[in-house]
Structure prediction request, 418 residues.
Amino acid sequence: MPFEIAEIKSYLPAFGNELLAEIAAAGSIMEVPEGKEILREGQYIKTVPIVLLGLVKVFTRTEEKELLLYYIGSAQSCIMSFSAGLTNSPSRIFAITEEPTTLLLLPAAKLNKWIKQYPALNELFYQQYNLRYTEMLNTINSLLFERMDHRLHNYPQEKSKLKGEKILNLRHKEIAAELGTAREVITRVLKKLEQEGKIRHRPGGIEII
Amino acid sequence: MPFEIAEIKSYLPAFGNELLAEIAAAGSIMEVPEGKEILREGQYIKTVPIVLLGLVKVFTRTEEKELLLYYIGSAQSCIMSFSAGLTNSPSRIFAITEEPTTLLLLPAAKLNKWIKQYPALNELFYQQYNLRYTEMLNTINSLLFERMDHRLHNYPQEKSKLKGEKILNLRHKEIAAELGTAREVITRVLKKLEQEGKIRHRPGGIEII
DNA sequence: CTGAACAGGTGACCATAGTCACCGCATTTC
DNA sequence: GAAATGCGGTGACTATGGTCACCTGTTCAG
Prediction:
């Protein structure tokens, strides 16, 4: 898909003109609808995506269970693709769009050269590694130190911030997947949280108090 | 502590002479005995360590519980210090030497300049981020998908590889801390594993079968 | 209009692992 | 030699959350 350099620059203002010209020549833009899997386990990476607009969620999973690792928002990138692309190894996670998303795709083959040449790009990936490292640490801590009710109480607050909505319309099944547990557990704990007055059921979803 | 450029080069052969000269001028070497805490939560970082020789383990913890995240071995670095040093934010983890360890300390203030200037250093940190990302993902997966007996069976195998010893002499309490559980649980599960013939008690420690 | 599919609610049960309260044994310290 | 300390072992109990079976209500396609 052809695109304007100016458009990319509006999302990634730190990128210099020379880098943008290279990206325009070798990269591409992809529009992805909501709920589409854009990366799966075992997949080898040819292009590394940067999210320009939208929201992508990143999961780890086995046959029976899955767990949300983090969200990739606007002007953020996918470290797993980057790392898998550079080292030519398969992905260990899967990623799915949570909103309609516009991706900027960078060819993995050029990245090694680009990150050496353009500090702005280098910095972006360092920032992303930092961010994901922190988020994974948070995930580990919450898995290890917190009980379900606590995790379930924090979860919609995070999500609410991320999506800018006060009332969240979520399937119990989806929450269960993101927290790595079962649907019945969510129903049960949600009821308990409502009794404790921490959450309220509303037409259209759940409100956090 | 003064030191020889040649000595550092023997541990980090990818580093060029110019970088080594800068490190010799601004960095320092520190010898740390076994069992010493070298980084704690909340601490701000002035120097980023690279392990030349020895073994450092990195933990997350609360008052009641802790969990091993990963080991930092020879020619590896501590991403948490690096990230905390660059962004001037406090450490979220703590690190302790498991063996007598020689550290090369790089001043955080110079790092930002150095990583732009010396691709070898830049590459080292990318590699480390990749490595830790993978290890944290493994940790998450094992916390989420595996039961204690499985985790406790894998654990000494990893450790055995890392330390090059076939028979491991470990306190149950130490194993418990690394796996984020209680001492009694380790005793119990270890007994079960021995009954299943997966492990054997030996004078001097535990042998994995 | 009807039936399938899906969301969610619920009770009963169970397995895992965390907790508590002890013991015995060996080693170190005074 | 006595006391203190640390390690490991153990039985009993409990809490958390995962599983199963089943039910109700809603929506939507045919």
